[in-house]
Design brief:
This protein is about 30% helix and about 20% strand. The chain has about 475 residues and is an alpha+beta fold. It has two domains: about 5-105, Nucleic acid-binding proteins (OB fold (Dihydrolipoamide Acetyltransferase, E2P), Beta Barrel); about 125-155 and about 215-225 and about 230-470, Bira Bifunctional Protein, Domain 2 (BirA Bifunctional Protein, domain 2). The strands form three sheets. An eight-stranded mixed β-sheet has the order 6-10-11-16-15-14-13-12, with helices on both faces. Strands 1-2-3-5-4 form a five-stranded mixed barrel. Strand 14 and strand 15 form a beta hairpin. The longest helix is centred in the first third of the chain and has 23 residues, at about 125-145. One magnesium ion binds near residues 396, 404 and 407.
Amino acid sequence: IKRDKVSDLLKSTEFGKEVTVMGWVKTFRNNQFIALNDGSSLSNIQVVVDFENTANEILKKINTGAAIKAIGKLVESVGKGQSVEVKATTVEILGESDAERYPLQPKKHSLEFLREIAHLRFRTTTFNAVFKVRNALAFAIHQFFNERGFFYLHTPIVTASDAEGAGEMFRVTTLDFDNPPRDEEGKVNFKEDFFGRSTNLTVSGQLEGELGAMALGQIYTFGPTFRAENSNTTRHLAEFWMIEPEVAFADLEDNMNLAEDMLKYVIDYALKNCEKELEFLKGRLLDEEKNKPQAERNELNLIEKLRFCLDNDFERITYTEAIEILRRSKPNQKKQFNYLIDEWGADLQSEHERYLVEKHFKKPVILTNYPAEIKSFYMRQDDELVNGKKTVSAMDILFPGIGEIVGGSQREERLDRLEARMDEIGIPKDELYWYLDTRRYGSAPHAGFGLGFERLVLFVTGMTNIRDVIPFPRFPKNAEF
Ligand code: ATP
Ligand code: MG
Ligand code: MG
Ligand code: MG
């Protein structure tokens, strides 16, 4: 169907030309002025209906939410705030909308309300902006890796591997629950659940990604990841997208540089390609800030915050240094922590991470060399002990307002060390024979990380709830659409 996109028309100066616009009615005033949006632009185009020529029954159906087609001349607008409008001689109703029942009445809606009608929220300016930024960031990520010669490797979604032995997995099953296979004692044999294998939805493509890197040199994955976290936080989803690069012949420092370069590249891309969207989102946030008491208001606006992130080196400190900083933090700040970090070896809670980033350094921080105890088996053991304890070449990147955005490490490439560690924590080596083969045949130093895509979108859009940056959020009891 031939049509003119609103985004093109708003830039056009071909006055007098006949155009065809199709879109959804946002508002209809004085039986004459339609604000029409077709998704291509955050802005609506004004369609002026020649109501003397338009049948009454059509005028009655130009309701908020209706889809219409309008044909007419593009003219210079006399009204304020818009450059062009369409003087429509024909208006056709493509799809009616019951003005009373349409949930998106023309007024400002709360994000909580919009989350309840997530299937319709795409039509709001806010979500138009958020999902355009999301799209741009996804594109920029592919472009970044492509420019650097990485292979986009598709790792499996259904897998028998549980990656970290960490639990939190969704099972994938072909079991007939009405008539399940049973063992001798009559218990349901879940081992049979995927054509005779026990399988899950992937929690990370890393281990498979390492196989790719140890042949292709540098790969990245970018796909859906699943975690059965029965939690209701503003930072966790049950289904999220993760970017996981893996690089052969690379160490922790290369890994940190790659992550920092990549984050800056994609943020810069969004600043350059989503100017209108980010301006809109900035305005939205500034409105929200006005409702806060002065002391709690953010000093930087969204765009300044993103620029600041580009213009400054991320702070790089070790876990041990971070613990020292947290210990020294003033008593009144300590009170904000649910528990104090006095023991070296404890895992940081998001309140600690946010203290380091937002209060202490006031910029992104890369934390390295965590205690081995609180990190995964595949991370490379450091040569020197700290406080008599083992540490690993891990790195977490912490962002203001977000907390952990990236988790990564140099991988343990020494077979003996890796096997010893697996034995220590009880990870069955035979099940991961394929992983260990990379260490048996031509092992080499390598490193990689996982970036939570939605956490990146949160940071760039300034949204505060992860459910508002993914089109179809999955969280406990929410999987309808
Ligand atoms: P967190 O400590 O926030 O629970 P994690 O340490 O469990 O995260 P990793 O296993 O390190 O997460 O995964 C790598 C990245 O994936 C994280 O740094 C984060 O950006 C993102 N991520 C992890 N879990 C989720 C989730 N449930 N929803 C959205 N993003 C997530
Ligand atoms: Mg987690
Ligand atoms: Mg974590
Ligand atoms: Mg992590």
